[in-house]
Amino acid sequence: xxxxxxxxxxxxxxxxxxxxxxxxxxxxxxxxxxxxxxxxxxxxxxxxxxxxxxxxxxxxxxxxxxxxxxxxxxxxxxxxxxxxxxxxxxxxxxxxxxxxxxxxxxxxxxxxxxxxxxxxxxxxxxxxxxxxxxxxxxxxxxxxxxxxxxxxxxxxxxxxxxxxxxxxxxxxxxxxxxxxxxxxxxxxxxxxxxxxxxxxxxxxxxxxxxxxxxxxxxxxxxxxxxxxxxxxxxxxxxxxxxxxxxxxxxxxxxxxxxxxxxxxxxxxxxxxxxxxxxxxxxxxxxxxxxxxxxxxxxxxxxxxxxxxxxxxxxxxxxxxxxxxxxxxxxxxxxxxxxxxxxxxxxxxxxxxxxxxxxxxxxxxxxxxxxxxxxxxxxxxxxxxxxxxxxxxxxxxxxxxxxxxxxxxxxxxxxxxxxxxxxxxxxxxxxxxxxxxxxxxxxxxxxxxxxxxxxxxxxxxxxxxxxxxxxxxxxxxxxx
Length: 479
Ligand SMILES: C[S@@+](CC[C@H](N)C(=O)[O-])C[C@H]1O[C@@H](n2cnc3c(N)ncnc32)[C@H](O)[C@@H]1O
Fold this sequence. Notes:
Number of domains: 3
Mean pLDDT: 92
Distance between the termini: 53 Å
Number of strands: 24
Low-confidence stretches: none
Bound molecules: S-adenosylmethionine
Number of helices: 9
Radius of gyration: 24 Å
Largest sheet: 8 strands, mixed
Structural class: alpha/beta
């Protein structure tokens, strides 16, 4: 059959067959595979072609002609425009099924792993208001979408000299949508967001402009201790204007007694990151606390902390159960971040050695260990690959590990680090992963060193996105 030729802008009717890579749904038109955004298996939709290539095309739903039984009503009016919650139109139980299947597919197809037990996915207790951190951006030009009633087209116009505070349009770092309500963090977070925007307008304090490199407000970052009730408001600005921040702090603390600290990060650089060259504290201690299990963690404005606190506890509990620690165990926690896994498991073992690239995270890890009265964790700073291949003196100070925990970034482990990990011959490796594809790739490599994947536990940390975490238990079968 001759394949249909599609062009940008073509409108096509499609029956959605399945869910594929990165949450995009899959349809076929005269043999041509089409990846469709905003659809779910079972839908019949009218879609607009956004990219047309020889072997496949990409399209976006503009109208649902016949809804799938897995489709649910949208909760948020910004769906399809703000870039978050790409699966909000899909029933949560179906989202979990897709994610579970994604783990199975990655493990089998990429890892060639056939006999591992893949346990039923652990869903998120809360599928809205689950995030403990949200980062909003300011812009001096609000992006107004021309056709808000459809999600096929994010083109629009700029409302010059306005103040927008919200999220970026997908893949457009220069375009900010005003957001008044988001269902990811809390009602309080929404009220703070709107109060800060209103303050900026009333006080005629301009948003930072990338074009002219002038202005004041850059970002608003709200962090909440979900288990402690602490609330941090971190205002990122281009200028350091203490009078403005004092006035804003007065407005916020009067209106929201829940706020426990207010910080101003001053970022004078061009780069659009919500991290300042320095920070000033205007209210409270400049830090908040949150809890995972019975351990308490100090969180400063720029420190890393797992975004879904309740699910992080489930993820760590799985890792601990899979490791089945003995009190005599020496454990390596590789890619340890701020030491939260090391600290969480510390009571169950003799010693934990954490390794992490970012120095400020190591400082946080040490503070957190101290805060919990823990003395059996040590943290080393450096690139894991180098610490395993070249700068290996540290190994002589510690006994060989009985269990190694790894929790790498989405890109997975460097092949040289996997090789060294394999050669260490620890009886158990617990691999915590935020990307099943790289987990499968690394597990496959570890099989050459005698490791077999015994079981895998998928855990959903980010409802309404296609992201999925999993914990794999690898055991050394042959030496
Ligand atoms: C997914 S996070 C894990 C954090 C931590 N286990 C937790 O649960 O909070 C991955 C961590 O790996 C660190 N990292 C990235 N590349 C690294 C490298 N080459 N060597 C050591 N650490 C690295 C990152 O800074 C980050 O803290």
